[in-house]
UniProtKB/TrEMBL annotation:
InterPro entries: Bact_HTH_transcr_reg (IPR050679), Tscrpt_reg_HTH_GntR (IPR000524), WH-like_DNA-bd_sf (IPR036388), WH_DNA-bd_sf (IPR036390). It comes from Actinacidiphila glaucinigra. One of its GO terms (biological process) is negative regulation of DNA-templated transcription. The lineage of its organism: Bacteria, Bacillati, Actinomycetota, Actinomycetes, Kitasatosporales. Residues 11-79 form the HTH gntR-type domain. GO terms for molecular function: DNA binding; DNA-binding transcription factor activity. This is Transcriptional regulator, GntR family. PANTHER family: GNTR-FAMILY TRANSCRIPTIONAL REGULATOR, MANNOSYL-D-GLYCERATE TRANSPORT/METABOLISM SYSTEM REPRESSOR MNGR-RELATED. Keywords: DNA-binding, Transcription, Transcription regulation. Pfam families: GntR.
């Protein structure tokens, strides 16, 4: 697969695909109402993954250039009307298009020769789910990175955090014990990435996990050096079962939380921020 980048690594594959299709729609090569090539045809044409094509189509949908019809395909819209809507202040679609699914970002990252991921989050559940899919692709022989380096920064669970917490009893340790168990499950799963070396699937894999005495109220993913995604955790109340009892806790919505790419000038700052926690406050798990 191609790993096209502009100078500084700012331009990503899905943007290249989306821009090419947008130019064809604006130029009339693809007229309003015309069906776009299938995902499989676009994969072959642009030499990218299916996930990259899906992300490009999603971006075009958000900008009003195309629309998807269930079971029929993707069709071009009248882009001039979409442009008028944006001029009149309807920016909702544009804002929505700016979000990126973690699964898509990780899928594209694993197409690179050298994969590097720094993650700061609460439990690593979303990251683990995304990486599992890439391990399957590696085992099937669809991709073969030469190295994978993952640094995972999670909160310590032996100190009192703001979240999770029993709504009625702040001294209840069970929510933190539950968080510790969940984190341990995902840490073990991610450490299993190193088994790819023994299987001869990836020459070099390194997984490092450190714990920091901070309550994460946002998640941050630094991917292959040039992409920084962040998203806010939304605090909510949640009912959980522990010790044969149901308790209400302050919790966060993490899985499925929207992630947004940071502007280029903030990416380096995010790396500095992550490294400052990693080197000064965090301890090995």
């Amino acid at each position: 697969m191609s790993n096209d980048r502009t100078v500084g690594g700012a331009r990503r594959e899905y943007e290249r695909v989306a821009d090419a299709l947008r130019h064809e729609i604006e130029g009339g090569a693809i007229a309003a109402g015309d069906q776009l090539p299938t995902h499989a045809e676009l994969v072959d044409r642009f030499d990218v993954s299916r996930a990259t094509v899906q992300k490009a189509i999603k971006a075009l949908e958000g900008r009003g250039y195309v629309e998807s019809a269930q079971g029929k395909g993707v069709f071009a819209r009248d882009w001039r009307k979409s442009a008028d809507a944006h001029i009149n202040g309807n920016a909702t679609a544009t804002a929505e298009a700016g979000s990126i699914e973690l699964d898509d970002a990780i899928a594209e990252a694993f197409e690179a020769d050298q994969v590097t991921i720094d993650a700061y989050c609460l439990t690593a559940e979303s990251l683990n789910a995304a990486i599992v899919q890439q391990v399957k692709r590696i085992i099937r022989g669809e991709i073969r990175p030469s190295s994978i380096h993952l640094r995972l920064l999670l909160p310590r669970t032996d100190v009192r955090l703001a979240i999770p917490r029993n709504v009625e009893d702040i001294d209840d340790e069970r929510p933190m014990q539950r968080l510790s168990s969940l984190s341990a499950i995902h840490i073990r799963a991610l450490r299993n990435l190193e088994n790819l070396v023994g299987q001869g699937a990836v020459p070099e894999v390194r997984v490092e996990v450190r714990l920091v005495p901070v309550t994460p109220l946002h998640k941050l993913y630094l991917i292959n050096g040039d992409l920084a995604l962040d998203g806010m955790y939304v605090v909510t109340d949640n009912l959980i079962n522990v010790d044969d009892a149901t308790i209400r806790i302050h919790d966060v919505l993490g899985v499925g939380a929207k992630l947004y790419p940071q502007p280029r000038e903030r990416v380096e700052l995010s790396h500095e921020w992550f490294n400052s926690l990693w080197t000064r406050l965090a301890k090995p798990a």
